[in-house]
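Researcher: I'd like a candidate sequence for this fold, 263 residues long. If you have to choose between options at a position, lean toward the conservative one.
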């Protein structure tokens, strides 16, 4: 894409857990600048809980970024200004920038032609509230519902759902930790490395491991197991450390067969 005659410059804003892993290898000389909500190994956050709708209305980075853009004259601010505003206004997530910093010095109006109607003198936008990590959000929503449910039967049902979800979270964490230890016990001392960057070959191995973990242990396509997605970073690190794919798959099978989590 960077070599296409139709693309002179590009700016990417990405918000999801571990989003830094998507752009950390972005070259600095191809006129592409990227901003992520968090580093490669951390989660992103939701914000602005709506009690009537019983859900979170936004994610932290997008809320800060869009609100700042809406109150700014776009030919007076650069993408670097937007990034610095993110750094100053985001309370939980840690924004990261990657790629060609020269592109970050361009005014936003080079990409977005019209300033919002609400724009005045450049100033800070809103500050997010009710911050909670993506994977903790379901628990926060249930806590809110439990606090406000007056019907005893419905309240008990919500409490059971909450307890079951907490137990599932604990089981997923325990199982993955057993798998990690199994790999480490195999003599791979660097299996706990903080490295998350994957080359193309390692990426294919990681996809194989992730899909095997999903189909063998916790299918995150089912709502009660969505927390399992938060644990994929463990397998990412194992693959980045050079742990043999067959060894990781064997660890998953071994824990699936023997762990009390699956009884």
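Model: Candidate sequence:
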């Amino acid at each position: 894409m960077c070599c296409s005659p139709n693309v002179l410059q590009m700016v990417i804003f990405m918000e999801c857990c571990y989003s830094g892993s998507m752009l950390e290898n972005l070259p600095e000389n191809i006129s592409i600048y990227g901003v992520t909500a968090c580093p490669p190994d951390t989660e992103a956050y939701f914000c602005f809980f709506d009690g009537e709708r019983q859900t979170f209305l936004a994610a932290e980075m997008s809320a800060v970024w869009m609100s700042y853009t809406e109150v700014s004259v776009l030919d007076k601010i650069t993408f670097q200004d937007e990034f610095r505003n993110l750094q100053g206004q985001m309370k939980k997530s840690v924004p990261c920038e990657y790629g060609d910093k020269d592109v970050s010095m361009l005014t936003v109006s080079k990409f977005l032609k019209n300033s919002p109607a609400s724009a005045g003198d450049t100033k800070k936008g809103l500050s997010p509230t009710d911050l909670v990590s993506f994977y903790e959000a379901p628990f926060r929503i249930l806590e809110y519902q439990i606090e406000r449910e007056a019907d005893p039967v419905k309240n008990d049902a919500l409490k059971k759902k909450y307890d079951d979800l907490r137990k599932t979270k604990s089981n997923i964490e325990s199982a993955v930790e057993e798998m990690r230890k199994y790999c480490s016990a195999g003599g791979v001392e660097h299996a706990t490395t903080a490295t998350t960057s994957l080359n193309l070959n390692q990426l294919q191995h990681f996809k194989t491991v992730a899909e095997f973990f999903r189909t063998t242990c916790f299918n995150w396509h089912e709502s009660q197991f969505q927390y399992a997605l938060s644990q994929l970073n463990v397998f990412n690190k194992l693959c980045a450390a050079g742990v043999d794919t067959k060894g990781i798959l064997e660890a998953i099978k071994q824990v699936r067969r023997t762990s009390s989590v699956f009884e």
